[in-house]
Amino acid sequence: MTTDGHWYLLYVSSGHEDRAQRNLKHRIKYMDAGDKIFDVVVPKTNEIEIKGGKRRTVSRKAFPGYIMVHMDLDELSWDIVRNTPGVAGFVSTGLKPVPLAEDEANTILERMEEVPSEVHVAFKKGDSVRVTSGPFIDFIGKIEEVNMDKGKAIVSLSLFGRETPVELDFLTVEKI
User: Fold this and answer.
1) In the CATH hierarchy, which top-level class contains the domain 123-175?
2) CA distance 23 to 15
3) pLDDT single digits (tens) 28-68
4) Domain coordinates in residue numbering, the chain
5) What percent of the chain has pLDDT over 90?
6) Which residues does 61 contact at the CB level (< 8 Å), separation at least 6?
7) What class has domain 6-119?
8) Whether the model pTM is above 0.70
9) Which residues pair with 153 in a beta bridge?
10) Are residues 91 and 7 in contact, defined by beta-carbon separation less than 8 angstroms?
11) Span 106-112, mean pLDDT?
């Protein structure tokens, strides 16, 4: 990371953060402003998601509607950034953009580098699920409890005409 400049937060259209980032990078390249505008980042975090019985890592936007730019602020760089298609403007308290505090910017950038620790599942208590593997394959039941620490759910299955709670791994059930 360059020691010059500061990180600034920009308003962009929610859902179009990547497009605004791409447009700004193109403008920096074609207007030869790489010596004033150093980096453009869409703040994202990585999460583990379990969906359809498969565990995968997904990247989610940490601040929808915002991107970060690392730059030396002067008239030229300010004009390039604020006139970029998709960029609504700088987050500021007045007319002049206010940079992010250095520790705040570093915290956001470090969070982007972290290995995902949180698991997100596609179901919650009360949802109907189908068992996809194991001795109860193709049984349909209802989620009674979700234990994120263990990576398991207690599912109420109908066995021999009775509702029986069974503890199953997240990977062996899918929402229906």
Assistant:
1) mainly beta
2) 14
3) 999 999 999 999 999 998 877 777 667 778 888 889 999 99
4) 6-119, 123-175
5) 52
6) 17, 42, 43, 44
7) alpha beta
8) no
9) 146, 168
10) no
11) 88
Q: Tell the residue number behind the tokens 């593997």, with chain if given.
A: 133
Tokens of 57: 């890592």
Unique residue bearing structure tokens 């360059």: 2
Query: Which residues have CB under 8 Å from 77's CB, separation 6+?
Result: 33, 36, 37, 71
Cα–Cα–Cα angle for 110, 112, 115, rounded to 5 degrees: 95
Q: What six digits make up the tokens of 105?
A: 């910017």
Q: Quick one: 3 exposed, middle or buried, by C-beta within 10 A (0-12, 13-18, 19+)?
A: exposed
d(C-alpha 160, C-alpha 163), whole Å: 8
Distance CA 100, CA 9 (A): 7
For residues 175 and 128, the answer to whether their CB atoms sit within 8 Å is yes
Summarize pLDDT for 1-14 with one digit per residue, the tens: 445 899 999 999 88
